[in-house]
Amino acid sequence: MKKMTEQNLINAFGGESQAHMRYLHFANQAEKEDFPNVARLFRAIAHAEFVHAGDHYRELKHLDGGFVANSMAAFGPGDTQKNLSLAIAGETFEITEMYPTYIDVAKFQDEKLAQRSFEWAYGTEIKHKELFEKAQKAVESSCDVELGKVQVCEVCGYTIEGEAPDKCPLCDAKKDQFVTLKKYLRP
Ligand SMILES: [Fe+2]
Ligand SMILES: [Fe+2]
To answer: Deepest in the core among 48, 144, 156, 183, taking most CB within 10 A?
Structure first.
């Protein structure tokens, strides 16, 4: 694998892994503030980031050893309003800078599987940003967000509120590959 694409996969694995963990902590905080739907949204999206991290990780199975992952981690957690801002900033970075660049490099280097993994994440993060913005509007008025069931494609992480489509718009997986997150990973 070409070195730049390989490093980008390592960085993306780091970024997705940390987003996964951040969102689980944000979910617990939202629950403390009595925003159960915001908590459920964070847990569902945490699961999507877990899927992305796994997709990137699998493309690195040729490696052996330790590597430095350079990711844009968001530090300084706070209340749910602040945590939603951190989440939106992270998703925005991924959509406007990170994944478009990683996709272009992978295309240029003809690394098709890495490109696909980046494209799946990119397509999903757009949905995450929309969902977090919806939650932010509610929390700004001190209300929990109105939220239908949130479903995540186990293949590519695609996240949707409401019924899962017959075929995933990103990876073509069938409807039965979508999972609904309710109380995922609450310790
Ligand atoms: Fe995301
Ligand atoms: Fe999918």
So the answer is: 48
